[in-house]
Every structure is written in C-alpha cells, then in structure tokens.
Amino acid sequence: MSLFAEPTRDGCAINEAARQNPLVRHMDFEGEDWLYFPALRPGVAIIRASTVDENGRLVFE
Predict the structure, then answer these.
(1) Which secondary-structure segment (H or E) carries 19?
(2) Whose CA is closest to 12, among 24, 26, 28, 25?
(3) Which of 8, 37, 44, 60 has a 20 to 30 A CA-CA distance from 14?
(4) Where are the domains of the chain?
(5) DSSP state of 8
(6) What does the alpha-carbon distance between residue 14 and residue 21 come to, in Å, rounded to a whole number?
(7) pTM across the whole model
(8) Which residues make Cβ contacts (< 8 Å) with residue 15, sequence separation at least 6?
C-alpha cells in the first residue's frame, strides 16, 4: 500500500521541488513511530471593510 503522506515515498510532495524540503517526517513518540506535520504559519490575512480611500485606509461600519 502506498500512502501519499509517507515520507519514504512521496511525503506529501507533488513535484521534485517539493521533495527537496519535505513537509512530513517520522518521529519517535514513546517508542512508537508517528508522522509529524509541523504547524503552517500563513503570511496573509483576510480583512473585511465597508469602504476604502485612495490611501488604503479602511472603514468599518
């Protein structure tokens, strides 16, 4: 059986560039082998505003 998340196989990588820096890795936890996925920190935010002026200031109503 082939698992997409298995680090020895694809490791969640869909191309060769993603395989260079794998997302998932094996970790030993209390004598058991687990897959470790580090937390992802997004660098974006979604902001809702009613209006915006030409200088980019937002107004919330």
Answers:
(1) helix 16-19
(2) 24
(3) 44
(4) 16-59
(5) T
(6) 12
(7) 0.47
(8) none
What are the tokens at 31?
A: 């004598």
Residue 17 is encoded by which pair of tokens?
């560039």
Residue 53 has which token pair?
Answer: 């002026």
Q: Which residue bears the tokens 């974006």?
A: 44
Phi, psi of 38 (to 5 degrees): -65, 155
CA distance 12 to 18: 8
- Provide, rounded to the nearest whole percent, the portion of the chain with pLDDT above 90: 16
Burial of 60 (0-12, 13-18, 19+ CB in 10 A): exposed
Nearest to 11 by CA among 26, 27, 23: 23
Check: CB of residue 29 under 8 Å from CB of residue 36.
no
Partners of residue 51 on adjacent β-strands: 59
